[in-house]
């Protein structure tokens, strides 16, 4: 279940006039976040890595247009799709900055796009390391840096992490390390951006996501080991014995994107139903 379209409705319009970037917005958690922020009035710059995925952001735009038409709202958020190849950081940043220039400023950045690959210890290659570090460390670092001129005071930066950064899988050494790093960088960005001239009162947080029902999760091999793994995750959940849903994540990101989160910065919020506890 990627996103429950039937439950999407126009919400409180507290983000009207805001410009939000959601990287990796063509599917899964990124798409759900983009829909949620747009349902609250934010203009969305949604990225995808390849041209063939741009049509999915067109579909997102059509969904939002229909949502607002049916609600009789006079102002409909703009949804702009951008092809930004995550494994080419210079091109990635340039494409996103060019889209932001059309608005002139930026209020919300959700860094959701990532390369997810596994490799058991003993099989890790240089290419595997290079791909994950480029996509999951280098690209986010240079994107924030490229956008510093465009952020406004009281901006919001939300980095999507993973519970794997705290509870790593033996086949995800490099990926888990990248997610731990993004959480550490979140704390540095919080200090650096919160009092930066032109970005005063900006907050930076990370959301550590657990296993969530998305297209990516549904493509996991149907093996006894995978079934056992998923059942163990459901059993470990403190709230309800199920996997996470996209809306569970999107609403947490929505809170961190809002004025109501003004006193939360430099933190990691676990969005996993309690499967991995972080104190």
Task: Spell out the blueprint of helices and strands.
Elements: E1 19-22, H1 28-39, E2 43-48, H2 54-70, E3 79-83, H3 89-101, E4 106-111, H4 126-147, E5 151-162, H5 173-194, E6 203-209, H6 215-218, H7 224-236, H8 246-256, E7 268-271
Helix pairs in contact: 1-2, 1-8, 3-4, 4-5
Q: Keywords for this structure?
A:
7-stranded parallel beta sheet; 279 residues; 41% helix; 8 helices; Rossmann fold; alpha/beta
Describe this structure in words.
α5 (173-194) links the parallel β5 (151-162) and β6. The longest helix has 22 residues, at 126-147. This protein has helices spanning 28-39, 54-70, 89-101, 126-147, 173-194, 215-218, 224-236, 246-256, and strands spanning 19-22, 43-48, 79-83, 106-111, 151-162, 203-209, 268-271. The chain contains eight helices and seven strands; from the N terminus they run βαβαβαβαβαβαααβ. The protein is of the alpha/beta class and 279 residues long. It has one domain (9-210, 244-270): NAD(P)-binding Rossmann-like Domain (Rossmann fold).
What structural class should be given to the helix and strand makeup?
alpha/beta
Strand content range = 15-25%
Briefly, what CATH class? Alpha Beta
Indicate the radius of gyration in whole angstroms: 18 Å
Domains (count): 1
Helix content: 40-55%
| Low-pLDDT residue intervals, each spanning 5 or more residues | none
Largest sheet: 7 strands, parallel
> What does the overall shape look like?
globular
Number of helices: 8
Question: What is the strand arrangement across the widest sheet?
Answer: 3-2-1-4-5-6-7
Order of helices and strands: EHEHEHEHEHEHHHE
């Amino acid at each position: 279940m990627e996103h429950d379209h039937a439950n999407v409705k126009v919400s409180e319009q507290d983000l009207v006039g805001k410009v939000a970037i959601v990287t990796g917005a063509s599917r899964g958690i990124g798409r759900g976040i983009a829909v949620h922020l747009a349902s609250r009035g934010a203009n969305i710059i949604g990225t995808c890595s390849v041209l063939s995925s741009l049509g999915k952001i067109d579909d997102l735009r059509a969904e939002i247009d229909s949502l607002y038409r049916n609600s009789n709202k006079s102002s409909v958020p703009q949804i702009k799709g951008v092809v930004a190849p995550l494994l080419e950081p210079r091109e990635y940043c340039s494409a996103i900055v060019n889209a932001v220039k059309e608005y002139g400023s930026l209020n919300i950045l959700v860094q959701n796009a990532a390369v997810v690959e596994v490799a058991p210890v003993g099989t890790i290659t240089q290419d595997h390391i290079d791909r994950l570090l480029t996509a999951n460390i280098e690209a986010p670092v240079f994107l924030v840096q490229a956008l510093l001129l465009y952020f406004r005071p009281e901006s919001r930066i939300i980095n999507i992490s993973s519970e794997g950064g705290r509870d790593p899988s033996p086949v995800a050494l490099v990926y888990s390390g990248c997610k731990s790093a993004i959480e550490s960088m979140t704390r540095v960005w919080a200090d650096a951006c919160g009092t930066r001239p032109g970005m005063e009162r900006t907050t930076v947080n990370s959301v550590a996501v657990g296993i969530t029902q998305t297209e990516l999760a549904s493509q996991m091999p149907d093996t006894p080991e995978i079934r056992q793994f998923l059942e163990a995750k459901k059993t470990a959940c403190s709230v309800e014995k199920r996997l996470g849903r996209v809306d569970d994540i999107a609403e947490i990101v929505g809170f961190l994107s809002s004025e109501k989160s003004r006193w939360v910065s430099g933190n990691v919020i676990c969005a996993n139903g309690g499967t991995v506890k972080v104190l």
